[in-house]
Amino acid sequence: MNWYKRNNPEVYKYLSVKEGKRSVRRFWQAGVGYDHHVEGNERALREIIEYIHNNPVRSGMVELPEEWKWSSAGYWIDNHDGLVKISSPWDEE
């Protein structure tokens, strides 16, 4: 977390959550999460990817998914990598 505080304060402010009377920093959401098997279901996988790409938009951090520099949204839109190089099973189509 201190890395974000030093190197990326604009993201650090979004990591603060209230737990009772105190404020803590959390990278992941609290709880067990929700996962399910999508192997062989391309439509479901694409819907999940789109949902994830839109998380920063829903949170109000950017207006468009491709503006979030840690996202693969730009790759899916026009095949350009952001900070993380993307490999996709659809590249070979």
Structural overview:
- With 93 residues, the protein is an alpha+beta fold.
- It has two domains: 1-27, no CATH class; 40-87, no CATH class.
- The protein is built from five helices and two strands, in the order H-H-E-E-H-H-H.
- The chain has helices at 2-7, 9-12, 42-53, 55-58, 73-78; strands spanning 16-19, 22-25.
- The chain has a two-stranded antiparallel sheet with strand order 1-2.
- The longest helix is centred in the middle third of the chain and has 12 residues, at 42-53.
- It is globular.
From the structure above, extract its key features.
about 90 residues, alpha+beta, 2 domains, two-stranded antiparallel ribbon
| SSE string | HHEEHHH
Strand percentage lies at: 5-15%
**By helix and strand content, what is the structural category?**
alpha+beta
Largest sheet: 2 strands, antiparallel
Estimate nothing, just give the exact number of structural domains.
2
Low-confidence stretches: none
Number of continuous helical runs = 5
C-alpha termini separation: 39 Å
Mean pLDDT comes to 80
Strand arrangement, largest sheet?
1-2
Helix-residue proportion: 25-40%
Tertiary shape: globular
The gyration radius over C-alpha positions equals 16 Å
Q: Tally of extended strands? A: 2
Helix and strand topology:
Blueprint lengths: L1 H6 L1 H4 L3 E4 L2 E4 L16 H12 L1 H4 L14 H6 L15
Antiparallel strand pairs: 1-2
